[in-house]
């Protein structure tokens, strides 16, 4: 009998190199880190499409941030915005 060996795909979100909570972090910088790890994932497109179908309430899916079931460009930090915003 021969056994068929299926190559294992390395997915950043399932790797022991990263904390699984990274994809559900509160801090915007950590969410951006998770997004960057998703860029090279071979299942990125399928992950994003599935998350949109399921209307995922939060987290990073397919390299995008979901908040309340909607994809957002960036997550704002917690707390109130500064009164004296820095001039760009």
From TrEMBL:
GO BP annotations, alphabetical order: cell redox homeostasis; negative regulation of DNA-templated transcription
Domain 4Fe-4S Wbl-type: 12-71
Taxon lineage: Bacteria, Bacillati, Actinomycetota, Actinomycetes, Mycobacteriales
Required cofactor names: [4Fe-4S] cluster
Alphabetized GO MF terms: 4 iron, 4 sulfur cluster binding; dinitrosyl-iron complex binding; DNA binding; metal ion binding; protein-disulfide reductase [NAD(P)H] activity
Organism: Gordonia sihwensis NBRC 108236
Keyword annotations of the record: 4Fe-4S, Cytoplasm, Disulfide bond, DNA-binding, Iron, Iron-sulfur, Metal-binding, Transcription, Transcription regulation
Entries under InterPro entries matching the protein: 4FE4S_WBL (IPR034768), Whib (IPR003482)
GO CC terms of this entry: cytoplasm
Superkingdom assignment: Bacteria
Keyword Isomerase set for record: no
The protein's name in its UniProt record: Transcriptional regulator WhiB
Function: Acts as a transcriptional regulator. Probably redox-responsive. The apo- but not holo-form probably binds DNA.
Post-translational modification: Upon Fe-S cluster removal intramolecular disulfide bonds are formed.
Family, per entry: Belongs to the WhiB family.
Note on cofactor: Binds 1 [4Fe-4S] cluster per subunit. Following nitrosylation of the [4Fe-4S] cluster binds 1 [4Fe-8(NO)] cluster per subunit.
Cellular location(s): Cytoplasm
Residue positions binding [4Fe-4S] cluster: 13, 38, 41, 47
PROSITE patterns according to UniProt: 4FE4S_WBL
Tagged with keyword Phosphoprotein: no
